[in-house]
Structures are given as structure tokens and as C-alpha cells.
Design a protein that fits this description.
By secondary structure, this protein is of the alpha/beta class. The protein has helices at 24-27, 36-46, 64-73, 93-100, 102-107, 116-133, 141-161, 166-190, 196-223, 227-254, 262-270, 274-286, 289-301, 305-332; strands at 3-9, 15-21, 30-31, 34-35, 51-56, 78-80. The protein starts with a strand and ends with a helix.
Amino acid sequence: MSVRAALMQDNSDHAASTVRFETAHEAERLVAGLPHLARLSMLAQESGIAHIFVENADGRSVRESTLDECARVAPDVRLTMSQAPKGTPLLPEQALRQSASSWRIVRATGKAGDGLVSRYINRPVSHAMTWLVLFIPGARPIHATILAALLGLAMIAALLFGDAHGPVWGALLYQAASVVDGVDGEMARATQRSSAFGAALDTSVDAVTNIMFFAGLTFNLWQRGNDAVALAGGLAIAEFALGLMLLTWYNRKKGGPFSFDLLKTHYRSAYQRGPGSVIAQSLSYIISRDLYAFGFMVMILLGWAEAVVYVFAISATIWIVALAGAIPAALRRL
């Protein structure tokens, strides 16, 4: 990396820094979704530096969008595109390495509550996707949310019109949507763009994709003459829809955005020790979308599409019963 950075004192006695790039393109290189310069601005602000002189050896100015991004992440740092005074000491190499380690920053965007499937299968793929997508100028978390929604639409189309091959393509697209679903959150956390609206939109897309997968699979099997599976799937979809309405009502009472986290938070707090804690932890993994999207894909690839519907029906019954036990207790704590 051809970067030279130095510390100095400007005329107003505020700490300042000089950053030199060989080209304007290098100055705009993305680091965890932020231009490299913006990442350095964050480090400068944390160190009490209020002024950065930016030099490009090729004489070209960086794009206005890059400067805007710097102002967003480090609003207290002033940027000046000019030659800095000579003889200033170098910024520590450790800070430069920290600012450039985009892969390390992206890998830190996982969640502590990730299950085994998410941690060892989905996250490695979504982290790689996030790292690549963040090199695209103008990429934002909502673009990944839109991609997940489009995969959901392709999934339901495959299930409704794919005949005998529909479940296979639907399951593959469902798993793909589950993986891409992690990208928007990783982008938001890496670029400091997390928002309540983004989280609510992501959760809503998840909920619609989930119910559409099971509805589409049930319809596909019914259309091919499996009435018993269609009955089980129809009852399970009704239970799932009722659960979504209960969660929507609860979250409105709570005054927060829609979320599936009620069962996890309630049963983990209610049963922190003993067998109950094991059951609560197991429940949090069982209701994880990452687990059942991947598991159902494997089952369908093995030719067990009907079994998927029955497992879903049993899971939906357990879920609605668990919700019925959790919501009254959670309301009492409001």
C-alpha cells in the first residue's frame, strides 16, 4: 500500500494529519464499505485529530461522494486537498494496517447468537459476498435486501409453476435467500448504516419469504395429488400466519419494530440454568431460519419434500404454543 500519513500541529493548535496516496483511485479504495480515506478519518477522529491534508501524487481530486462519506463517518475532521508542510512524523503503521483490513472488519459483523448452520455454512458465504459487494460504489444494505426479496419471488415462481422439479429449485432459492439475507445486516454493521427501518424491512422480507416457501411447497404437492400433505401444510400455514399476527400485535404494544426475537429473549431469561436453559437454547436454534432453510433444502434434495411439510406442521404447532406461553409474560414486563 503506497500510503504515507503523518501527524503535525496546524496553526490553530489542533492535531492534524497528512495522508498521501499515489492515485485518486487508491484514495477511494473501499475498506469495509467505506473509502480508505474515510476509514483513516475515523481513526484520526478517535485520536483527537481535527484536520487531514490529503495529497494525491497523480494530481487528481477524489470524488465528491468520497468526501461526503468521510464527513458522514467522521464529521469532526476537516479535509483539505492540498500539500501539507514537510517534516511531519509518520502515523503509526499499526493504524494504517487496521484501517486497511476490510476482511477483518467484515468478519466481525457476525452475531453472537448465530447457530451452527449460520456460523459455519451461511456466514462464510455471506461474508465473502459482503466483502465483494462493498467494493461497488454506491452499494447500500437495502440493495441486498432487495436481492433477497427477488430471490424469494423466484422461489415462489419455481414452486408454483415448476411441477415435479419445483420443490428442488424452490429449496435452492430459499437457501440462497437465507444466505443473502445476512448480507444486508453485515453491510449495515460494517458501514455503520444500521437503522430501525432497515431491520424492520429485513425482518418483513424474511417473514414473507418464509410463509411463501411453505405455501408454495404445499400448493406444489397438492397440485400433484397429495391431499394429506396439503391438509397438514394448510393447517401449519394458518398457525404460522396466526403467530405472525400475534408477534405484530405484541411488537406494537411494545412500541418497537417487528421482530422474531420474542421467544429467544423470553425463554433464555426465564430459564437461565438447568434443563430449562438447554431447552431454551435448543428452541432458539430450532426456530432459526438458517437451520430450517438449510435442513429443508437437504431433505428436498434427498426426495423428502412431503416430510418437509410434516416437519413444518409440527414445528408450527410447537412455535404457536411457545408464543402463547411467552406473550402474556412478556406483556407483564412492559
